[in-house]
Amino acid sequence: MTNYFIHESAYVDEGAEIGEETKIWHFSHVCGQAKIGRNCSFGQNVFVANNVIIGDYCKVQNNVSLYEGVILEDYVFCGPSMVFTNIKTPRCEYPRNTSDHYQKTLVKRGASIGANATIVCGVTLYECAFVAAGAVVIKDVPAYAMVAGVPAQIIGWMSAYGDVLEFDEYGYAIDSIGAKYQHVSDNEVIKVS
Ligand SMILES: CC(C)(COP(=O)(O)OP(=O)(O)OC[C@H]1O[C@@H](n2cnc3c(N)ncnc32)[C@H](O)[C@@H]1OP(=O)(O)O)[C@@H](O)C(=O)NCCC(=O)NCCS
């Protein structure tokens, strides 16, 4: 049974796996060896390459290309026109365009990537990481870290709910839904309860 929605202007190649309730909107293209989970939404002009794996409840906004090597876990948000890459040193005369050349980019559960941000391949965005609009990410982003700028640097910390965390003198912060976080070190925040 095909319990998902594909707009009539979109192309979904034979063999693509698409989960229940997922919606694929205008002018998008999903390649045949892509795997997409359930309850996802793909906006206008989204491209999903072969061997891309996407979890459940992801939202991919307009004009985003998910190239081979990209893995999105559940509840990942990709803002409009953000850019993934999969080759670190591309050359036209000496092409590096086979699966062996592609570097992995892993976006873990709950992470968000702001509009127009660029993720240079080979990095991991850990749980609930938040990439500001227009940032260029060149290294791993810790869980709950908020990064911005070029190259992206940690500018603060954000809860899973989306509140910027203010830590007390003991290193604890509670967000507006009562979730508690601990600032363990310069590079580490954990959810305590
Ligand atoms: C990162 C973000 C969440 C910060 O929001 P905020 O906590 O309200 O931050 P503020 O506006 O108070 O700014 C805090 C600091 O970060 C800086 N900053 C904020 N956004 C930034 C960005 N995108 N790039 C670079 N610096 C940024 C501000 O200049 C400010 O610096 P300062 O303390 O030196 O003055 C927000 O700016 C952002 O980029 N959101 C993404 C929106 C988006 O792309 N949505 C997509 C769906 S429509």
Helix content: under 10%
Could you tell me the strand content as a percent range? 25-35%
Element pattern in H and E: EEEEEEEEEEEEEEEEEEEEEEEEE
Q: How are the strands ordered across the major sheet?
A: 1-4-7-10-13-16-19-21-22
Number of strands: 25
Mean pLDDT: 97
- N-to-C span: 40 Å
| Cofactors and ligands | coenzyme A
Give the overall shape.
globular
Radius of gyration using CA atoms only: 17 Å
Helix/strand/pairing class, anyone? mainly beta
Low-confidence stretches: none
> What's the total helix number?
0
Characterize the main sheet. Answer: 9 strands, mixed
Tell me about this structure.
The chain contains no helices and 25 strands. It has strands spanning 5-6, 11-12, 17-18, 23-24, 29-30, 35-36, 41-42, 47-48, 53-54, 59-60, 65-66, 70-72, 77-78, 83-84, 105-107, 112-113, 118-119, 124-125, 130-131, 136-137, 145-148, 153-157, 172-174, 180-185, 188-191. A hairpin with a 4-residue loop joins β21 and β22 (153-157). The site of coenzyme A has 11 residues, from β21.
Summarize the structure.
With 193 residues, the protein is mostly beta strands. It has strands at 5-6, 11-12, 17-18, 23-24, 29-30, 35-36, 41-42, 47-48, 53-54, 59-60, 65-66, 70-72, 77-78, 83-84, 105-107, 112-113, 118-119, 124-125, 130-131, 136-137, 145-148, 153-157, 172-174, 180-185, 188-191. Helices cover 0% and strands 33% of the residues.
